[in-house]
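Batch manifest, entry 17 of 40.
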Amino acid sequence: AVDENPNAATVRFLVDGADATDFERYTRIIHLFDGRDEEAVARARTAWKHAKAADCAVTYWQQTPAGKWEKKG
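Output type: structure tokens
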């Protein structure tokens, strides 16, 4: 049930530690996490490594104190 895609979405948002195992059917997968939470950061790093190993193009964006998003990696 975790990887169901009933509306054939091409973009998937993952929050609260959710993970995806199927990268092929999405154009983009977005992991949202709290950068102040060490466990969340560790999970995000693991997800990054899995996506890279699956040959996905990955980027990292960080929110500034002013609320703007900056590309970091």
